[in-house]
UniProtKB/TrEMBL annotation:
Pfam families: EamA. Residues 6-136, 148-281 form the EamA domain. It comes from the Bacteria. The keyword Secreted does not apply. InterPro entries: AA-Vitamin_Transporters, EamA_dom, EmrE-like. Its main location: membrane. It comes from Metabacillus niabensis. This is Drug/metabolite transporter (DMT)-like permease. It is found in: Endomembrane system. The chain crosses the membrane at residues 38-56, 68-87, 123-140, 146-165, 177-196, 208-229, 250-281.
Amino acid sequence: MQREKMGLLLGLVGVICFSLTLPSTSIAVKYFGTTVVGLGRTVVAAFLVAIVLIVRKEKRPSLRQFKSLMIVAAGAVLGFPLLTSWAMDSMSVSHGAIESALLPLATAGFAMLRAGEAPSLKFWISSAVGSLAVIIYAVHLGFGRLQLADLALLAAVMILGLSYAEGGRLAKELGSWQVIAWAIMIGAPFFIIPVGLNVTPEMIHAPIQAWVSFIYLAVVSQFLAYVAWYSGMAIGGIARVSQIQYLQPFLMILFATVFLDESITLFTMIIAVIVVFSVILGKNAPVLKKGVVSNEN
């Protein structure tokens, strides 16, 4: 019981930390730009990760594991941070929270496919309902059409979903937080030059809230939040702890209201409830091995 409580507590800490990612990105990107915020956070996180890996004397991944880590890095340390940084430069946090709420569903879908399973009709219906709600919301805010920022954020969700699914599979043999740690170490060397080329002397004069937001993204969002999240699931059980993730879009909206003074409409909350409800149904939908016929009505 104590282990389960500790797992739930760590999972909640991870979700709260992740919920502050979009608000922090929205603040930092206005002063540092997309490339520095999107890729620079990984460069900074790499120094912390390197210390942890050296102190713990972690075993280096095998060549086969390295290939999987490349997929994790492509989503968690490249695609998602860069695309969300670009999107949050012109999108409200509450808007981003609605679209990122599809992440658990995307992760579940890719996890099924990677495991050779065929998602059930219930899963596809839930996915369609959640996706349609997000599109209606985005089109409503975009005055009749999807904006490029919407497409970027939805692409980020899909890429990170694949990354999470691959990371979850790899964590069984490499370790939970070690997956994101090694993914950071893989991506960071490639990001140093583009980040360096986009750093300007004026950035040193950015306000304190911009620097706090960037440091938060680098130290917490990019690494420590993953440690809490993966450790929580390892201790308290993946199925039970992962349910806490349904709180994330509502926490994002709350933080947007508190820290960014965003006004939240009833329409936004209704869409959030619809999306989260569809994600819950989709994640709990039965799955079958490919080639097996379902007995569902």
